[in-house]
Amino acid sequence: MNLRLHLLAAMLSLALMGMPAQAQQPGSSNPLGAPTPTNPQAETPEQAPTATNAPVADTRPLSGAEDIGVGLRTRGRNYVLPSLQIYAYGDTNRSLITMGETGTELEGSVTGRLAVQHVSRTRQFTMDYMGGGMFYARESSLNATMHAIGLSQTFTGRRWALMLGDRASYLPESPFGFGGFGSLDTGLSGVGGAFGMNLGSLSPAFSMGQTLVSGRGYRISNVTLAQIQYNTSARSTITAAASYGLLRFEESGLIDSDHRIFTLGYDRNLNRRDSVGVTYGVSMFRFRGLPQAFDDHFVQISYGHRITGRLGFELAGGPEIDKFKSSLTDSSLRYYWNLHSALRYRWPRSDMALTYSRYTTSGSGLLLGAQTDEIRFSASRRFTRSWSGSFSPGLSRNAQLEETTSSSVHYNTYYVGGGLQRSLGRYTDVSLNYTFQGQMNKSTDAAGVSINNTLNRHVFGLAVSWHGRQLEVD
User: Fold this and answer.
1) What is the pLDDT of residues 300-339, one digit of tens each?
2) Which of 173, 233, 334, 366 sees the fewest Cβ atoms within 10 Å?
């Protein structure tokens, strides 16, 4: 409870600091198994850009803590936007992601959301909060609550910009392929980009990497970050970023972890659309109550291509060296490579996002560090004024680091989801949604005994969504 109070106090203090400046990219991924969010700020497909709603360029650096995107559809405004979703569904794994156990359970959830933005000449403040609960028809002991919040405070000067941010969540299960609430954006890593309206998605190196289905039980995730950017010339930028992340589990048997990361990067704009960059960083992974710990030093060479309002593409990769504080092998050093690529494209009626990442993570509570490969795709399409659809698959592979355990463990986790949505008016939508979630665990213990476990889960249901009128504020 003390940890939750400390997190809440930290987020509230950031929220009270003020109101920031530079507009950020709306999340381009669509919630898996959820209706496509309606953004009252976005122009309809029939609208042509005008002087007041022309897209705003995305100027975030390649070497920063957030992924680049296609830019905002409209210029920054001061607003408050509430929304509500009621979701009824069936879940074929009623014990909620328990290996080998099935049994369909009828469930429901109610989630509310509040988005706030305040923009001035030199500052911008953005907040997105979502909270609610899920309720079971027969297994009332499985009833759960959910809270997630994202905050961003930006200050800009003539040649510099400072960003402070926090992404926190309190969830009953892993966010990777989270199909029950119909609200979480599982197309992005953890809660880092879960809210999608104005908060950018965190680069994988800064996220807590929750890409494993780790069983039923509450978990707290929090990433607090600071980034400063200085323009050395009209085309060159130096960026330094630091963050502290934690992952805590209320259920026993899972591994609590801490993650600190520091990066320093240099970006160079080749022209209006193309840029290159180089980044050095160190990630420090620690596990509560355990002697295992390691530092991950990495270098990334980056390339970015942006067409405002249409395309955002980035490709970054390079070597990394892991130095282990307590190694079970003869060597305390291990050499890997990292890669992150992201493509986001926007048509008049459609949005698409495809990402692939290979990076070192804390192990999502099941492993003492892991090499993680992760690929996600999401697409949404407006067929007519009233009908739209979405499709979102994802796959991750997590391999236990050999230096931290005497056994060999590999997890393959995957999900596929989609939804069909119909507008019932300007502020109300109804949708049919489906999510499949699966995981295969292949492990070999110290004695050479092979163990395999498989999870298969289907979630299907009906959602009714309402969003209020965007309230303009001074």
Assistant:
1) 999 999 998 899 999 999 999 999 987 666 668 889 999 9
2) 233
